[in-house]
Design brief:
222 residues, mainly alpha, 9 helices
């Protein structure tokens, strides 16, 4: 993949990037109330779209907030759908844990809980890894036409991964790596966390768009 370093530098380029970060911090704070998350998600999809179109300034202005909200809402629904298998497995685990605590000394419940937890780990961890790897493809497939069905087409996503697994793995690893740096914001307490987390999200959104461009270039006839 080309020019990966741009993913880390672009948030600090272009016009009025500082004010864009300030507004993003506001929406990040509102995300704690469950409101801003849709605006943040929509904005990040806009970033991916700009990268896919090779626009020079990948960070859009905070304009047309109603459109950004709708885009973000649709993508959050996609993300929740992908999390449904984990939620479905977690509910029985909670139930067994509560029952085991309430009926202390009942060996059969403790055994069932231990067996279920073992199976839970065996299923959830691989699923989480697979979802993390596939997420850049999911993001750019949604960003292409803003259609939920395209982002949920597992067959096409798997086919894309098979054709471009090296680039996809690179992007996924970089995204996980940069998001782990969000903890640096703890040094600056809450405000620092908001800025740092948003920066890591921007990098991941850019990388998803870059993966799309790389995939298109590789599939272009020689």
């Amino acid at each position: 993949m080309k020019n990966l370093e741009q993913a880390f530098a672009f948030p600090f380029k272009g016009k009025s990037w500082g004010s864009k970060f300030l507004l993003a911090a506001l929406f990040m704070f509102l995300s704690l109330l469950g409101i801003g998350v849709f605006f943040i998600a929509g904005y990040l999809i806009r970033v991916t779209q700009r990268v896919m179109r090779n626009e020079p300034d990948a960070m859009p202005e905070w304009k047309n907030l109603s459109e950004i909200f709708v885009i973000g809402f649709k993508f959050i629904i996609v993300y929740i759908i992908y999390l449904l298998p984990v939620l479905a497995l977690t509910i029985p685990l909670i139930g067994l844990s509560v029952a085991s605590d309430a009926a202390q000394g009942v060996v059969i419940l403790e055994v069932l809980l231990a067996i279920y937890m073992f199976g839970y780990v065996l299923l959830v961890i691989p699923y989480g890894v697979a979802l993390t790897i596939a997420m850049p493809i999911i993001i750019y497939r949604f960003a292409a036409n803003e259609r939920m069905a395209e982002a949920l087409d597992i067959g096409e996503i798997y086919g894309t991964f098979k054709r471009h697994w090296q680039s996809t793995l690179i992007v996924a690893l970089l995204s996980v790596g940069i998001q782990s740096l969000a903890s640096v914001g703890l040094i600056l307490f809450i405000v620092g966390i908001l800025f740092t987390i948003f920066y890591t999200y921007l990098v991941s959104a850019y990388l998803a768009g870059a993966l799309y461009l790389d995939s298109m270039e590789r599939e272009r006839p020689a």
